[in-house]
Each structure stands twice: as C-alpha cells, then as structure tokens.
Amino acid sequence: MPEAKLSTDPMHTALKQYFGYDKFRDGQEAVITQLLAGNSAAAVFPTGGGKSLCYQLPSLMLDGLTLVVSPLIALMKDQIDALTARGIKAARLDSTLDANEYRQVMQELRDGSLRLLYVAPERFNNERFRNTIATVDIALFAVDEAHCISEWGHNFRPDYLKLVDFAKACGAQRVLALTATATKEVLNDICSVFNIAPDCAINTGFYRANLQLTATAVDDASRDSILLQKIKDLPLGPTIVYVTLQKTAQHVAELLAENGLQAKFYHAGLKEQQRTEVQDWFISSNTGIVVATIAFGMGIDKSNIRFVYHYNLPKSLENYSQEIGRAGRDGEVSQCHLLACTSDLIPLQNFIYGDTPDPGAIKKFVNTVFEQATEFDISLYEFSQKCDIRPLVLRTLLTQLELKKYLAGGTPFYANYQFKPLKTSQEILSGFNEQRAKFIGDIFRHSQKSKIWYQVDLDNTAAAMNTPREKLIAALDYLAEQSLLEVKVAGVRNRYTITKKPDSNDALAKELSDDALAREEREIARLQQCIDWVCLDACQTSALCARFDSPLEKDCGHCGWCERKSQVTLESQTALALSATVLQAVEELRSEHKQLLSSARTTTRVLCGLTSPQISKAGLMQHKLFGIAQATPFKIVFDQVADL
Ligand code: ADP
Question: Is 302 in the pocket of ligand 1 (CB under 6 A)?
C-alpha cells in the first residue's frame, strides 16, 4: 500500500471533499486508521454515531471493492443515493432490481468501477453471486448489525455466522464489524470470529446525555389515556410510538388521530408503497407521529426525532436501546417514555416459546439428516414440513450441526434454471468461435422447452456434457449479461456433506434440544431484564450503560429514577389456570391427533395459539381450543398438560 494512504491527511481531505465534514466523530478516525493500516476492526458506536462513514470513506482509499453486508439493505436506498450524489459509485443487489439494473451492477463489479456494493446476508445463498464475487478483489468486508453473529446477542442469526466463512472464502483483505449494541460477551464473540485484535475494537460508549429515559407503570385499561395525555402535555415534535403487534399500530394511530393528532401507522404488513409514503411523510414533518412495529426506524435518517414511546414492553434491553437510539440524533434533548404493562409479558414470552422446537421434532430432524447420503441437498421448506420445525428454526439447527462439525455446508444452488432466448439461436451462436458455439449449442440442446422458457436440469446436463455445473452457470450468466438470454432461477436447495456421524442420534438430539431450551431461557431472561430495569431502584441510564460495557461514573441526573428518586412498581399478573372442562376437551383432542399431540409441548403450543408446520397442516388453527390459553403463561399450561 502506498505510504500516503497511511497518513491521516488524505483521510481528512477525503472527509471534506466527499462528505463535506470538517472533523471526524468520536471513534471514526480510530476505526478508519486501523482499516487503512490493513487491520480488521470493530466499531461499536451508538445509533447515529456515524458508523457508515467507517466503511464509506475507506472505500474511496482502498484498492478493491467494499462489500457491505446488511440485513437492512432495503432501507439503504437513501444512503446509496446520497453516495451517488457525491460522485461515489455505490449500488445494492437485491430482488427489486430488474434484469437490466442487475446486469449493470454486475458489469460495474467486474470492471472495478464500483466502490461499494450493499447486499443482504441471504445474497450469499445465491450461487451466481458467489461465483461472481469470487473473482472480485474485496478490499473491505463490512458487516453491519454484527451482533447477529453472536448467540449471546439478542438477535442471533445463523446466516450471519456463515458470513465469517464467506469473508474468508472471498479473500476479503479486512473486515469491519459494526453494531450499536454489544455487551462484553457479544463483542468478544465478534472479535474472535473475525480475528479482530482487542485494540482494533473501538467502543465509543453508550451514554447519550440528551436522552431522558422514563418508565411508567400502566395497565390495559389506562394505557391509551396515559399515552394520549403524555403526548398532549408535551410540545409537539417528531414522534415514534413503538408497539408489538401490527393491529395495535393501527388501533393506536386511530386513537391519536381521533384526538386531533397527526398520526399514521406503519408495519411490515403494509404494501411497500404505503410504507414509503408514511416514511416520507414522517421525514418531512415536524409534528408527525408514527405508530409502528419495530420494522420502523431502521435506516431512517431523521435526526430530530424528539419523542420515542414504548406502548408495549420491548423484547430486551438491547432492542430497547436500539429503538430509543433513534431519538435525538441531532444532540437536542429528546424524551423516551416506556409504558410498562405486565399483561404484555405473555404474548412476548409466547413469541419465544413458539421458536423452541419439540424434542420429538428435533429427534426426527437428526434421524432424517443422518439417513441421507454423505452428500445431500434439501429444500428448507420440505424439510420443515417433514420434521415439523419452522423454517427459520430449522436453519438454526442445520447451522448448529455445521458449527458442531457434523455437517459442512456447500454452496446452495438453484434446482431450477430457466432461460428465454432474446435472439434466435443462430444469432446467438454466430458471435462465438466454433468451440464455444458448440458448448452453448449443447446446453440449448439439453434444455427442455416449454411455451416460452427453456428449463435446464443442471445436474443432468453437466453429466451429459461431462462438464462442471459451474461452467454451465457461468455460460448462462455470460449470455444473460450480453442480453442474449433472460435467465430465471428458482427453488433454492441447501447442499451439505456429512463430515462425521454422531455416536448416538438420540444424544445429539438431546444436545440440540438442550441448546434450544437454553436459548429459550436466555430470551425469557432478557424479557425479565426489561421488567427489572423498569422497576430498578437506581439510576436507569447508568444501568443501561453498564449493560453495554460503558458504565457511568455517576448517576445521569435526568432519568425517571434520578428525577423521582423512587422506583416504579408493577402489578403482578394473576395467571388463570385451565379449567377442568377445558382439560377434558384437551384430552379428547389429543386422542383424535395421537401422534401429533403426544408431546406436551406441541399440545401447549396449540392451546397458547402458537403454530407449527404440522399444527397448521392438521387444521388445528381453526379448532376452538387453538389459542384458548392465550392469556396464561406457557409454563403453567405446559405443566398442566404434562400432568394429564
Ligand atoms: P449509524 O450508522 O451509526 O447509526 P450513520 O452512519 O447513519 O449512523 O450516521 C448518522 C448521521 O451522522 C448521518 O447523517 C451522517 O451523515 C452523519 N455523520 C457521520 N459522520 C459525520 C461527521 N464526521 N461529521 C458530521 N456528520 C457526520
């Protein structure tokens, strides 16, 4: 690397020239200096702390591509537009691109003109993408929301753990891990998997003096009026009200609107266009209130959000911190009110219980995996139906087998390649020399024509032509890029090799079940931490900062506790046990569905209104007992069912 790149001057020059800023924010210079010196680094900055600049600026100074992996790329359009406006070539690859846009990005990727490419982690499941990226020099591999790689984090995602291998496989020269919420354990995990030296992990601390945090005890009956009163008592300003369920978002927005406030609702169930409208309206408004599920706010660049309310309890203190982190990015005083209601606990706990598979289902999963040939491929959907495990949970289990070294994940592939010629085959072939024309002609000959599209069975064609699959894919991609064919892919299948068989399937299944139960326990404990934080008899800001490994030296002086010097008390919930009549009906249902409902856990799921692939297949969601115990804690129902 040329010497000049190591001095800080070009860094400041680029900061001014491309971004128009005079100085770095806390932590930025330290992170960028490490990256330019060739080291991997971690940036733990609060939301709004300016993490993106830590990869945007180096992307201009390093030779090679900066690949940004973010689960939020759908929301990164603004960031990419802003970069483009500054003359920096940046693009994203996602399913919203049409064939032409896709081709253009691929072209810019190959000719090296692209500085930054944004992709979602799922993009690495795309064989075509992986083939292309393998040929590109990756100067920097930036992983946003990096806490997702850690099981200790609040949002562990198995596909994130795989990024570690992808970064290695594509020969990334350095990695930058970014997050706003990392406890000590999470940051240790991040640094260990990405090989980041301790002094390259820059944590700027969690404390934001302009945020005033308070919690108020409410119950179902008083919650609406308390929210309304609080909003009315305070000056108007851009406001987000977070709720757990989509239907609550609509209810609360209507309530506020009926009371003369400018409120709209937002959740992932709205159409893309509606979501964009609400978002744009909020960004340009100085008094707008958005009532939203947690889908809202990620990636929204609005610095003057004055109020963040939590109408429902957050799932964890990590979630809470991220959500309140969206307030007051401009540094002005902003208020965050949490309305704490114990009746929120059960639905939130049920989300957690719903993700724990039944031990019987895990056994079936293990047996099914190890009955496969050494090399096998599966469709997650089919496997999920067969083992009665939700697809996302199944992915976690498969990843766990990879991490425990029983399986090695291969490149997922599309079972289904289709193409549509955009010119006659004569015109297509005439552009190639004899040998290549024969190769392409052979692919055409081996493909099945339906009305418009040709179907390519890659495995059979590869065998018949005695050539690797990858060569066929490369040829089809090339033809697509030259606008000679349009190519469509579908039916992703995950490929695995069994690298070791367990000594005992049952013991392995038990181990996985125990892992799942441990995860459940951790998540339940995280929820409890929210309650404990609400009721804390000490400075609440301080406690939150300590949780993220940046304790305050003295009390903040401006949180709810510091102002009152007394703690909040919450009503404890009285749980309703199932009546004898209901239990009788449960026994009858179990005798009708002997196999499915033989397990106490699956039966409890039905009663608590939680689904599984087999529960929906058996039509039990329409049964009168489905969800009958929605207001009772899962554990209590489970114990009653287990006693039957
Ligand atoms: P994060 O990803 O940490 O939440 P962003 O990267 O979105 O934060 O940055 C938040 C805001 O701060 C953006 O509007 C960005 O343009 C601005 N910003 C970043 N770095 C600087 C800087 N050095 N000086 C001034 N503004 C900055």
Answer: no
Partners of 488 in the β-ladder: 418
Nearest CA to ligand 1 atom 27: 50
Q: What is the CA radius of gyration of the chain?
A: 27
CB of 522 shorter than 6 A to ligand 1: no
For ligand 1, say whether the CB of 46 is within 6 Å of any of its atoms.
no
**Ligand 1 neighbourhood includes 49 CB (under 6 angstroms):** yes
CATH architecture of 211-349+535-564: 3-Layer(aba) Sandwich (3.40)
Write down the pTM of the prediction. Answer: 0.80
The closest of 38, 31, 91, 43 to 67, measured between CA atoms, is 91
For the chain, the structural domain boundaries read 9-203, 211-349+535-564, 355-406+501-521, 419-483, 580-642
At 4 the pLDDT is 42
Tell the burial category of 426 from Cβ atoms under 10 Å away from its Cβ (0-12, 13-18, 19+). Answer: exposed
**Using CA atoms, how far apart are residues 596 and 615, in angstroms rounded to an integer?**
8
pLDDT value at 2 more than 70: no
CATH architecture of the domain with residue range 9-203? 3-Layer(aba) Sandwich (3.40)
Q: Is the pLDDT of residue 493 over 90?
A: no
For the record, the structure tokens of 95 come out as: 């399913």
The answer, yes or no, to whether any atom of ligand 1 lies below 6 A from the CB of 129, is: no
Q: What's the pLDDT tens digit per position in 265-314?
A: 999 889 989 998 999 999 999 999 999 998 787 667 788 999 999 999 99
CB of 121 shorter than 6 A to ligand 1: no
- Best residue among 12, 25, 76, 329 to mutate for probing ligand 1's pocket (most ligand atoms within 8 Å of CB) is 25
Q: Could you read off the pLDDT of 224-274 as tens digits, one per residue?
A: 999 999 999 999 999 999 999 999 999 999 999 999 999 999 998 899 899
* Closest C-alpha to ligand 1, atom 24: 21
